[in-house]
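Office hours follow-up: a student asked to see two folded examples consecutively, so here they are.
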Amino acid sequence: MKKILSSLLMLCGLTGLSITHAVATPLVIGGKNFTEQLLISTMTAQYLQAQGYEVQLKNGLGSTLMRSALESRQLDIVWEYTGTSLIVYNHVEDKLDAAEAYARVKALDARIGLVWLNESALNNTYAFAMPRKVAKANNVHTLSDLGRLIRQRQAAGPWPGVGVDFEFGSRPDGLLPMQQLYGFKLKRSEIKQMDPGLVYTALRNRQLLAGLTYSSDGRIQGFDLTLLEDDLGYFAPYKATPVVRADVLAQHPQLADQLNALSAVIDTKKMSELNKRVDIDQEPISQVAHDFLQQQGLLSDTTGKPDAPIAPAEPVVPAVPSEAVVPAPVAEPAPAPAPAPKGAPVIGNDSNQANGSTP
């Protein structure tokens, strides 16, 4: 027995392996509980599996649970949004542009061993949309243009109004300061508050002039809507970015470049189309993810299959404070997510909505 153990130790030393790592440890990929995140986590799993990694997929999580699982080492890789990390996890209320937001969350998370890789061009933030034909007929491309059109419609007589969800219509950093920034003032009767999903339906049916949407939602394309540019920078950026534990990157030297290659081919327009294929066309997530990877040249025609098995990971267990495992008073509960920033015209897109558009 001693000779066998000695031989095993010698073999591990010669090959640069430890007994602990003689068997490859799967990469555990996390994802949130809406369509976009189910897609992006699935395509990450398929892509890395094709690169030769053993992977496990653990998606369908809420934002705070996914963050907790990443910090407690139950997850290795997630895709996070800069605005969510900035406002919800790190409680930063400063008004920052996209580059500043990325730099801030990258620096803050580095302190706890989380590495933000290259951000994608996917920005799933709040956005106002109009029926495409209405926007084109009125030469409306930006929120400043929308302010001009609203003033014209108010002077001309009754008009359909603007649709928003209940939260945005009432929060102190929501609709009111946006009106002030863009130079228009809506009467109460001109503000149509409704569930988020109904805004899209009302826009499709021309029951609203404009409405609050989410920039990568599949219904933008599916319902023939057009997004208006936030030309004065009112809304906080929500750039999707791969975030990986530093120790995992150290164990896999090529992983950062591989994930950056995936990040480089994802943008808002492409993701909106993928979301549409799932939410409106009812195509399977695994097939849509696989097709996208092939179209972007990240999977060859003979590499991987959309139905190739990806091992499900063990269920995420909420992290227990270390104080709870010793005979000491019960630890204080984890702090609740930060309230919406007040005063500054910045919107945090941090609530979970149906049909999957909210980070």
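And the second, which I mentioned at the end of office hours:
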Amino acid sequence: MRTRHRGTVFVAVIAVVALLGTACGGGGAATHFALKTKNSQPAGITHGPDGHLWFTEFSAGRIARVNTAGKMDEYPLPTDRAGPFDITSGPDGNLWFTEFSANKIGRITPAGEVKEFPLPNPRSGPYGIAAGPDGNIWFALQKTDRIARMTLDGEVKEFAIPYTGPQRPNPYGVAVGKDGNIWFTEEGLSKIGRITMAGVITEFPLDPKAGPADLTLGPDGNIWFTEHYAGKVGRITPDGVITEYPLGSKKSSPKGIVAAPDGNIWFTDLGTNRIGRVTTSGDVKDYAVGDGYRQLQGIAAGPDGNVWFTETHANTVSRHTLDRSAAEGKKP
């Protein structure tokens, strides 16, 4: 592992699900639930306010939910080929999501009512999304290299990420830190970024070929992130100290990441068809989830105390049962 500390400041519908089977691994098990719509490409996933898991279907242009028993409901979006990618629970009790292809932010109620908010600049490419501590929705604009804030009424303010070409930031994931700021990844420039509510941006460089993707707030108060080019999981403290943990395979390409109920960090690895667990002390273990190429993507902590993840190529939403005996950091 390696630790560094540096930074620069700038101002600035209903579907019936088929249970495919169970794959065991290391004290847990993966159970797969097939989507009714073929080639729908499930991507982002989150724990909703109604006790269900909500996820996006990128190619099908739908938002869907699944309960812990595997029953699914799908909701088509008003805009054709919208390309919904990431999704988060909002402070208003609704779900908010990005529409990468349609250049919109969407909102869906637990009852399935959808409203779309067009973005002010064309071809912005909204990607990662999170509910901010200020009661607004924050998201990355991958094609225009900005971090944006939207009020619940749809008013947008954008903050440009400073850079000098030709390589662009390509912001990807967004998460809220314990410090009350928004943290984001710059996949193109291999940096971790932080933006305050006032729009002050600080950047923390990684190795040039890291390719940071998703990120999450850990139980230790730090931000954890995936490096899908470098095959590592990283941790950054609120003051910018970075520690990286290499994964076990040269094929590893971690993507989604989440803090789970067992006190550990869990991530998807689309390069090895596995999900992984890293403790806050840096111990890494991975688990097989099935045969064939599955293309694991998003991951979320479920209301049942397990982790749920999407498999874009396999066209499934899956559940990995956590081993409570291996829980770290949980108080009795």
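Two things to take away from it. Residues 2-27, 328-332 have pLDDT under 50 and may be disordered. The radius of gyration is 18 Å.
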